[in-house]
Specification:
heterodimer, A: 69 residues, mainly alpha, B: 316 residues, 2 domains
């Protein structure tokens, strides 16, 4: 098994953030109580957005690396 | 989107994210895989965020959500007060509000940003619930005087509202009500709100979802309550249990009750509970008609241009 490239590590981190956000969202739907909705807005949604940003930065770096930009 | 659909959507998204984790090297190497990555890592979270926000906004409108904090349970019980003069109770019991979103309907300012400000207030409530000192039953106050707009979102322009004599006489005009110069919940008008402190003395209609806290079960009637609800005959049960009628058998909250003969505490034409289920009867017989309408020149608390917090608060 090969070690992931540094860029893939960044992508894996993005997936982890996405999964955390999804998990919080799922719990808040199943248990619609104030603490879970607070967690969704404080952690869940920001984590998903962070994952998107990490993915965007990964794409940006790949494009830069290939001298496309 | 209902809860089941939302849960299925989120579960599918979780499956996609796990698939990405497992197949990441292959996906990032191929052209098609990169398209999947783009959709899964950029488009999918946008959809999930949208679903999360809309779903949470809808869920937090529900009464079930509001009463999930124990300090709100007494307010749900107060919706079952068996007295047509109590504003939230009569609206709730007669289906004048959506049952599922009763709290939200009356406690969301009727403005462009009313929903947003309600959500921020909800966050403040949650902060106090977890990190602050929660006031005791009956001690909660609204942040601001109750705005007439919240009533007028339904009543404005309504024929019965505009034709009602107490809305246009004794120092009150429709313009004052529409411009919030005179609060609907001023003393002497519609001033019987949740009345948590005296909840233990009230007859209860139906079966509330929650049990009255012990501290309220043993509460004495408030001395300054001029509207203390006394039954027509016999002693009132201090624990709020409906007194059995003399003829025996369980008391039916819909059973005809004689009108309280005391015109000073009840409207002259007060109706039995069964008749008040007709909404027309209810609004035709308001306390203000019994000579309790505020006099603009007297300077008592009913004359406040905008009701002071105690008048406007819901927890009198």
């Amino acid at each position: 098994m090969t070690t992931p490239e540094p860029d893939l590590k960044r992508l894996r981190l993005a997936i982890i953030f996405l999964l955390i956000g999804i998990a919080i969202e799922l719990v808040s739907f199943v248990i619609p109580r104030p603490p879970w909705f607070a967690l969704l807005f404080v952690f869940g949604i920001p984590f998903m957005m962070l994952g998107m940003l990490l993915y965007a930065s990964h794409v940006w770096r790949q494009l830069k690396k290939k001298d496309v930009l | 989107m209902d809860t089941t659909t939302a849960v299925i959507v989120v579960l599918c998204a979780a499956a996609v994210a796990i698939y990405l984790w497992v197949r990441l090297p292959q996906l990032s190497a191929g052209h098609f895989g990169r398209v999947i990555l783009l959709l899964a890592m950029f488009a999918m979270p946008i959809g999930l965020i949208q679903v999360g926000i809309s779903k949470s906004i809808n869920e937090t409108k529900k009464m079930e959500f509001c009463t999930s904090c124990h300090e709100m349970e007494v307010y749900a019980i107060s919706l079952h007060i068996d007295d047509p003069e109590y504003l939230p109770a009569v609206h709730y019991q007669n289906g004048l509000l959506p049952r599922e979103t009763t709290c939200y309907t009356c406690h969301t300012d009727y403005t462009l940003y009313g929903d947003i400000s309600a959500k921020f207030n909800g966050l403040k409530h949650m902060w106090v619930h977890f990190f602050g000192d929660v006031p005791g039953p009956g001690e909660l106050k609204t942040y601001t005087a109750y705005p007439n707009d919240n009533c007028l979102q339904c009543h404005q322009g309504a024929r019965r509202f505009e034709k009602k004599s107490s809305h246009t006489t004794k120092g009150v005009t429709l313009e004052m009500l529409y411009s919030n110069q005179k609060s609907c919940v001023s003393s002497g008008c519609h001033d019987k709100i949740h009345d948590i402190k005296n909840l233990g003395q009230k007859d209860i209609w139906g079966t509330p979802e929650f049990e009255l806290p012990g501290v309220l079960k043993h509460a004495k009637p408030a001395a300054d309550d001029p509207f203390a609800d006394e039954p027509a005959g016999g002693a009132k049960d201090p624990f709020g249990e409906p007194a059995a009628p003399e003829g025996g058998g369980a008391k039916d909250p819909f059973a005809d009750e004689p009108s309280t003969p005391d015109a000073g505490t009840k409207p002259a034409g007060d109706k039995p509970a069964s008749e008040v289920q007709n909404v027309d009867d209810l609004f035709d017989e308001a306390p203000a008609d019994a000579g309790k309408a505020p006099d603009a020149g007297q300077g008592d608390k009913g004359d406040a241009v905008v009701a002071p917090k105690d008048d406007a608060g819901d927890t009198k």
